[in-house]
Amino acid sequence: MGLVVQKFGGTSVADATKIHRAARRAIKTKLDGNRVVMVVSAMGHTTDHLLALAKQITHNPPHRELDVLLTTGEQVSIALMAMAIAEAGERAISLTAAQVGLVTDSVHSRARIKHISKERIEAELQAERIVIVAGFQGIDPVGEITTLGRGASDTTAVALAAVLGADHCEIYTDVDGIYSANPRLVPQARKMDQISYDEMLEMASLGAEVMHSRAIEFGKKYSVPIHVRSSFTDNPGTMIVESTPGMEDVVVRGATLKEDLATVVFTDIPNEPGVAARIFSRIADNHIVVDDIMQNVHSGGTRATIGFSMLADDLPAIRNIAEILQREIHFGGAEITEGVSKVSVIGIGMRSHSGVAQKMFEALAESNINIRHISTSEIVISCIINSTDGQKALLKLHNAFALDTLPISVN
Amino acid sequence: MGLVVQKFGGTSVADATKIHRAARRAIKTKLDGNRVVMVVSAMGHTTDHLLALAKQITHNPPHRELDVLLTTGEQVSIALMAMAIAEAGERAISLTAAQVGLVTDSVHSRARIKHISKERIEAELQAERIVIVAGFQGIDPVGEITTLGRGASDTTAVALAAVLGADHCEIYTDVDGIYSANPRLVPQARKMDQISYDEMLEMASLGAEVMHSRAIEFGKKYSVPIHVRSSFTDNPGTMIVESTPGMEDVVVRGATLKEDLATVVFTDIPNEPGVAARIFSRIADNHIVVDDIMQNVHSGGTRATIGFSMLADDLPAIRNIAEILQREIHFGGAEITEGVSKVSVIGIGMRSHSGVAQKMFEALAESNINIRHISTSEIVISCIINSTDGQKALLKLHNAFALDTLPISVN
Q1: pTM score, whole prediction
Q2: B68 → closest Cβ in A16, A60, A78
Q3: What residues in B contact A50, CB-CB < 8 Å?
Q4: What span, in angstroms and rounded, lies between the C-alpha atoms of A341 and A384?
Q5: Inter-chain contact A76–B72, Cβ cutoff 8 Å?
Q6: Residue B408 lies in a domain
Q7: Does B87 fall in a domain?
Q8: Can you give the pLDDT at residue A407?
Q9: Of A208, A132, A223, A218, whose CA–CA distance to A173 is shortest?
Q10: Which of B58, B83, B84 sits opposite A87 (nearest CB)?
Q11: Mean pLDDT across chain A
C-alpha cells in the first residue's frame, strides 16, 4: 500500500469550495489504495491578516508571541479540512505540530526541524484515517510554539514524507509546475516534466518562488520525490528528483530574472587576510542578506575590489555600514548602484559541458545588453545588468538556449 | 504580595484599543504590588465567525474538529495581549491550555476541568511576568484539544484563581456589575455591591447572562471571591461571595424574567412508581432541557398531573415525544402552551423569612396578572405567566420588594 503526502498551499484552501476540492483529491488518493497525509497552510490571506492585527498592537512584536499568533492560521485550516473530509463520508483527523510531535529548535519565526515522531500519525493511518497536519508550525523541546519561516509548509510536507518513508510528496499550488522561466515574463516558457533538486534549489534562490528552498534541501537529503502540481487540474506537474546521468545532457534547464537589486563595490581595498571577513561580518550583524559576492585583485595582488549584490530595500542600512567601514579599513570608496537585476541560467549539465558562459555573454551582446558583474557557481551563471534590460535579457537567453523546446538527449 | 486573576471577555478585547486598555489595567494591578494572571476570550465576534466558516464546510462538524477550530480564537487573543503588554514595557507571556497543563475530560465542546498544573504559571509569575492564559480551552489526558462550553472563559478564570490561591478573581465585562433586575427591562434596577454564590447561581440560570454558571459553582466550591466589573470604568462592580448571616436580612435580592418558554402538562396520569422517570428519561434522551417541573396528585392519589416548562424552540420535538408517551402510558392528554414566560424572585433571606410567596402572588394579582404555574426552591419563587404580562410583572415585583433601594439591615 502506497503512502502519499499531499501539501495544499494557502491559495488551494482559500475558501470552502477549494477546501472541499482538496478534500476530494485526498479522498480519491486514499480510494486509489494509498495511505494519505495532508499538510495544509493557512487559508488565503490569513497570515497577512494576522500580521496586520499584530501591527495594530505594536510594530515590534516579540517573535515568541508572533509564533503563537500565526500558528492559529494553520490550525483553522486543518480543522476545516477534517470537517470537509468527514462531510464527504471519509475518516479524517487533524493534528497540530504539538499533537504530531514535530519538534524544532527554539529559534522563533525561523525554527528548524529537529525531530518528527511517527507514532501518532502511523496510528491514525492504521485506523484508516486521512491525517491532516498543520504546516509551518512546530514545538520546541519544552513545548513552546515555533514557526519554520514564511512558506515553510512545503518543508513540513517534505520532512513528513521523509520521516514516514512516503512514496512521494505532492505540492499542490496555483501554478501547474516548474517552468523554464517565469511564464509571466516569458510567454514561450515551457513546463518541465522533471528537474533535479540542485537545479530547483538554484531556481528557488534565484527568484522562482514556487517552493520553499529548505523543502527542496530536505527532499534532496532524504531522496523524497517531490511532485509540484496544480490543485485545480489533474494534469501532471513537475517532478523534482535526484539527477540522473541522462539529465546532464541538458546543459541549461531554466533561466531566471531577479529584480529590485542593488550592487555595492568597495574599491582599492588593502588585500590582507581578514578584510573580507570584517566587511561581511559587519553586514551580517545588520541582518542584511548578501546575494552574490565578486572579488578581484590588482596592483600586484596588494589591493582588491570587492563587489556584491543585495536587495535594494536594504540600501539605507548599507550606506551607514559603508561609512563605518571606510573609517576602519581605509579603502578607496563605496560605489553603490541601484536599478540593477540579475539574469541567470541554471543546469546541472554545465558540470560536464563547456561554452555555456561564452554563449550567454554572446547572446546578451547580440541584444546590446551591457554586463556589469558576472558570478558563477557549479550549475549557475549569473550576470548583473541594468534593470531596464531585464526582461529583454531573460527572453533572449530563453531563446538562445532553446528552453522552449523539449530537451533532446544527445546520447 | 497579592495574586489577582483578571478575566477579559470578548467585548473587552474586541479591538487593538480595547486590548491596550486591558493591558494597562493588568500592568497597573502589577505595579500596585500584585502578581497578575489574565484570562482572555476570543476577540469580539471571532467565535461566531469561526462557526460560520465551519458551517460553510458542513452542517454537522465533528465536535473534536470544532474544538480544534474554535480554540484558535483565544490563542489569537493571548498572543496580541502579550504583545500589547510588551509594547507598554512590561514583561508578559501567553500560554495555551496545553502549555499551562489545563487538563479536562474528553467530552468535546463541553469538557469539564479535571486538573490544572501550577508549575508553569508559578514559574512565569516568579520571573515577574504577567501570565496570559487562553480561556475556554483545555487538553484531555492524551493531548486532544477540548473546549469548556460557550462562555466558559469565566470558568477558566475562577478555576485558575482557585488552584493558584488568588486573593480574588476579577471578571471584566461590558456591564458594570450584577443588577437587581435586567436594567434594559427595569430602568430603576440597582447595581448590587455584593451577592452570594447561591443567589448568583439562581440569577444566572434564570436568565441573567452576566456569568457562566459553572464559574460560579467553582467560586462557591473553592471560596474564590469573584468581582464582576466593567472593563471601561474604574468603578467597583459586584462582589460574588459566600453568604454571611447579615446577607440573609435581605429577603429578596433580585428578580428575573425568562422569556420564550412553553409549558407542557400531562393530565390524568396513572400515579405509579416509575411513571415520572419514564416520561423525563424519554425527554432527556431527546436532548431536551426541562426547566421547572411541577406535579400534583388527585383522585385519592391514584392519578397525577405533571407539568413542566421548557424552551419554546424544543416544541416540535416534544410533540412527537408526547404522542409516543401517550401510547405507552395512557394518560389523559398533553396540553401544550406557547407564549409563556417565567418571573422569579431570588434571595437567600427566604430561608429564614416567611411570607415572600404570599407577597409575590399579591403583587401579581394587584397588576391583574394571572399565574399559570408556580414552582419554588429554597431561595427562589417562580411563576409562569403569559408572555404579554412579562415585563409588567418584573417591574411590579421589583417595586413590591423595593429592590431599587439599598437593602437595610433589620438587625
Answers
A1: 0.86
A2: A78
A3: 76
A4: 6
A5: yes
A6: no
A7: yes
A8: 65
A9: A208
A10: B58
A11: 92
Question: Which pLDDT tens digit goes with each residue over B231-242?
Answer: 889 999 999 999
* Shared-domain flag, residues B297 and B168: no
Q: Using an 8 Å Cβ cutoff, are B34 and B2 in contact?
A: yes
Q: Look at residue A143 and tell me if it is in a domain.
A: yes
pLDDT of residue A140: 97
For residue A232, is it within any domain?
no
Mean pLDDT over residues B176-204, rounded? 91
B79 and A86 in contact by Cβ < 8 A? no
For residue B381, the cross-strand partners are B345, B376
Q: Do B76 and A69 touch (CB under 8 A)?
A: yes
Residues A277 and A138 in one domain: no
The whole-number average pLDDT for the span B40-66 is 96
Strands (E), A365-410: 373-377, 380-386
Q: Given A127, A153, A174, which residue is the final one in a domain?
A: A174
Distance from the Cα of A392 to chain B's closest Cα (Å) equals 46
- Average pLDDT estimate for B51-61: 96
pLDDT reported for residue A336: 92
Which of these, B94, B144, B89, B7, lies nearest to A68 by C-alpha position? B94
Neighbour order of strands in the sheet with B238-241: B92-95, B130-134, B34-40, B2-8, B168-173, B226-230, B238-241, B194-196
Domain identity same for B167 and B261: no
Q: How far apart are CA B115 and CA B103, in angstroms?
A: 5
Instruction: Among A120, A152, A174, give the residue marking a domain's end.
Output: A174
Q: How many whole angstroms separate alpha carbon A257 and alpha carbon A132?
A: 36
Segments forming the whole domain that contains residue A349: 255-400
Number of helices followed by number of strands (H, E) in chain A: 12, 18
- The complex scores an ipTM of 0.85
Q: Residue A205 has what pLDDT? A: 77
Q: CA of B102 to nearest chain A CA: how many angstroms apart?
A: 14
Residues of A in contact with B54 (CB under 8 A): 79-80, 83
Cα–Cα dist B339/B373, whole Å: 14
pLDDT digits (tens, 9 = 90+) for B303-323: 889 999 999 988 888 988 998
pLDDT in tens, A211-225: 888 899 999 999 999
* B72: closest CA of chain A, how far (Å): 5
Interface test with B, best of A80, A132, A136 (most B CBs within 10 A): A80
On the question of pLDDT at B409 being above 70, the answer is no
**CATH number reported for the structural domain that contains residue A41 in this entry:** 3.40.1160.10
Residue A410: its pLDDT value, please? 41
Residues of B with CB under 8 A from a CB of A: 15-16, 19-20, 50, 53-54, 56-58, 60-62, 64-66, 68-69, 71-72, 75-76, 78-80, 82-84, 86-87, 93-94, 96, 98-99, 143-145
Closest CA–CA distance from residue B40 to any residue of chain A (Å): 14
Residue B72 vs residue A203, higher pLDDT: B72
Q: What is the CATH number of the domain that holds B262?
A: 3.30.2130.10
Our count of domains for chain B comes to 2
